[in-house]
Each structure stands twice: as structure tokens, then as C-alpha cells.
Amino acid sequence: MPVTLQVIYPVTEGTKFDHAYYAKTHMQIVDQHMGPHIQSSVVAKGLAGGPHVPAPFYAIATFVFADQAALDAAMQAAGPALEDIPNFTDVRPQILIGEVIN
Questions:
Q1: 81 Cβ contact partners less than 8 Å away, ≥ 6 residues apart
Q2: How many other CB atoms are there within 10 angstroms of residue 20's CB atom?
Q3: Whole-number mean pLDDT of the chain?
Q4: 17, 86 Cβ separation under 8 angstroms
Q5: Spatial distance between the Cα atoms of 55 and 18, rounded to a whole number of angstroms
Q6: What is the pLDDT of residue 7?
Q7: Cα dist. 2→48, 87, 98 in Å?
Q8: pLDDT tens track for 7-37
Q9: Where are the beta strands (DSSP E) in the chain?
Q10: What's the rounded Cα separation, in Å, for the pair 62 and 39?
Q11: pLDDT digits (tens, 9 = 90+) for 88-101
């Protein structure tokens, strides 16, 4: 059964997030180390939380894995990606692991 890993970067007062570094450099690191285990992925840059409402998140990355074993393998390889986080943000990312239901 497919599972997802979502990495969510919330906007909080006084924090920073370098979207250019994230898109160009960090996601290449993710792909290099975790990519062989990832079925598909999408990254959304936060634009708004509704009409005239600031975005509550800088970005949300969603990774789809064939099963829990593939996710586990990706997490075993994730060290360099995790170590890179301070290079583009001072936000502590939130994580959601989910079961694909649709």
C-alpha cells in the first residue's frame, strides 16, 4: 500500500526560508540520496492561506512511496538532506506520514 511523507515548513514570526536554495540545491540532495526510493514527489511553495490571507507555510513537500519499506529505506538514506536544512531555513519542519487513500 502506498504511503506518503510530507515535510511542512510553517511560517512563524522572525523565521527565514530561502526558496531558491531549497528548489535548486536542497531538492537535488533529496533526489540524490532518497530519490531511488521515491515513486513521485511534488513541492508546493506557499502563496496564500485564502483570499487576502498570508500563506501559513513556506512550502510543503510530498513524497509518495510504494510501501512502508520504501519509505524506511529513504529515511535511512536521508542524513545528508536532514543535515542540509539549516542552509535554507531556521524553521523546524513538521512531518506527516500518511497512507494513500485516493
A1: 26, 29, 30, 33, 34
A2: 8
A3: 97
A4: no
A5: 15
A6: 98
A7: 29, 31, 9
A8: 999 999 999 999 999 999 999 999 999 999 9
A9: 3-10, 40-45, 57-65, 94-99
A10: 11
A11: 999 999 999 999 99
Distance CA 80, CA 101 (A): 30
CB neighbours of residue 32 within 10 Å: 12
CA distance 90 to 76: 23
Q: What is the pLDDT of residue 11?
A: 98
C-alpha cell at position 43: 513541492
Phi, psi angles (nearest 5°) of residue 53: -120, 125
pLDDT in the model for residue 94? 98
Is there a contact between 77 and 65 (Cβ–Cβ < 8 Å)? Answer: no
C-alpha cell at position 38: 521515491
